[in-house]
Amino acid sequence: MHVATPRICRVALAFAFLFSLCAVSRAYADTITLMWDPNAGTVTGYAVYVGSSPRIDVGNSTTYTMTTAVAGQQYCFAVAAYNATGEGPKSSQVCGYSNEFPTLTKPSNLTSTVGQSASLQLVGNDPDGQPITYSATGLPPGLFVGSATGFISGTPTTAGSYTVTARVFDGVLNSAPQTFTWSVSAAPTTDTTAPSISIATPTSAATYTSTALNILVGGLASDNVGVVWVGWANSRGGSGVASGTTNWSVPAIGLQTGTNVITVTARDGSGNVGTAVLTVTYSAPDTTAPAVTIGGPTSAATYTSTSSGLTISGTASDNVGVTQVTWATDRGAAGTASGTTTWSASGVALQSGANIVSVTARDAAGNRSTDTLTVTYTPSDTTAPTITIVGPTSASSYSTTTSVVTLGGTSSDNMGVTAVTWANSRGGSGFSSGTASWSIPTVSLQGGTNVITVTAQDAAGNKGTDVLTVTYATPDTTAPTVTISGPTSLDTYATNSSTFAIGGTAADNVGVTQVSWRNDRGGSGTASGTGTWSVTGMTLSLGTNVITVIARDAAGNQASDVLTVSYAAPAAEPAPVPTPTPSIVLSGRLYSSGRWMKAYLQWSNVTGRYIDVYRNGTRINRTSNDGSTTDSPRGTGSFNYRVCVSETNICSNTLTLTP
Asked: Could you say which architecture CATH assigns to the domain 1-99?
């Protein structure tokens, strides 16, 4: 048996015995062959696995041929390499098919007559798409089969009942045999009966009228033995053979103008004939278009109307006859005129502007011609346009810090917007660019409120407006003012404390956004507050410290004030001697979270501008006498706090705070 080897891609086998195969294509026999590349490492042999079947040891061979494949069955293969240490992993599976059997449709039993032609078409198929050849044994004498086509034809010569066996072959496999009976009856004795034939198409009547140059003729024929041939002839020229016998047809018989007598003849095997006749009258088609003319309301090509309804009229003619006159406009209206040779149509609806009215005359053959009238309709317009500002905002007001503004928007009108203009209540006016979608690139503004009115106007002078109020805030160029007022309003100050607090005020025509400070000896920060500001916990260096306070506004303008502070380190300061009854009542709480601690101190209001704050006997701060302050102590243990009016012995009680 012929073997067609499936196409297998060779893939190298890794040393670790990993293996992969390319997809197996379909095979056209009952044998499948696999191939693979040898492993580069030490390999004793290879094992082939077919589906879940046990391994097949093929030794050192790099091919395997399966000779027991069932036609049409799919098979999946995997390969593993092995040596003395064992078998490596299997490759991924690849699958393929063996050949499938071709098939042949079983024919029905047949009956024929000696001396009369007979035929049969065998129908075969190959699932693999391979070419097939046909064979048939036991045919009645005189019949033959075409091996490539499967068409059995010929004239039986011997009466009898014949058992015919037919097959198809795809080059490898034969189909299952299909058996049927072909009975051949003896030829009749002398036949003198003529066939009968009738025409049914295009009519069963004796006459027919056609406007087509070619005509289809068909019908039926019968005979006591059998009709073997049907032919036709035209009295105006032309003849031929019909398709079929008992049911016959002639697809196209050419006609001449006037009368065509078509005779159809049926003949049997003995030469007897029968005829049928159809007389066809051919009238050449009408190809002449009618003529149509618009005569009212004008015979000119154009017309102007102030009415939305129009009446038109005119005439039409044709070599055979006008069957219909219709009208339509390019603006969507349409209808049928009254009359044909003299016609009219009323109520032709017009739209504003130009309307092209087309009038069309048609004849029975479908030929047509057209005349047109362009009607310009200008209605009275009393509808004002609408206009909307959408940019820079669709709101009614807008604020800006630039001296110009760009406007844009839309406008519409029942007849059409002809112009869009603008005017500013603070001065300035002009035209926009565009109408339905308009824009004004530059409108100059004055400081304060600018009422900008945009107006849309149509051709009739109707107007519509929209208004945008624009507030223009001129740029801020005024610098703030800032003043240091505590601990002194002078330019210089001397202290014996290493920590320092200052305060003051700041103002601006728009508003102060930040107050900051810096020391020329190191250190900087942001003050608390703006209009009234303060800085606490500022660290001084021995000697002169030039402290600059800067106020800024939102526009970036700034101003500064300077205080020169001289710091001389004091000798150890004894703790203030408290009075028997404290003049100031000190209270507070200590909050802590991890290493972070914050002491909140409060005291009763006493006379004095500044308060000195002591922690564990050392002054740590001088602050305004506003009744409270905060401290951020470090370390462990308790913290003892007292406050005293600066440069006095008026002190509070000692407050001990523990984390």
From this structure: Sandwich (2.60)
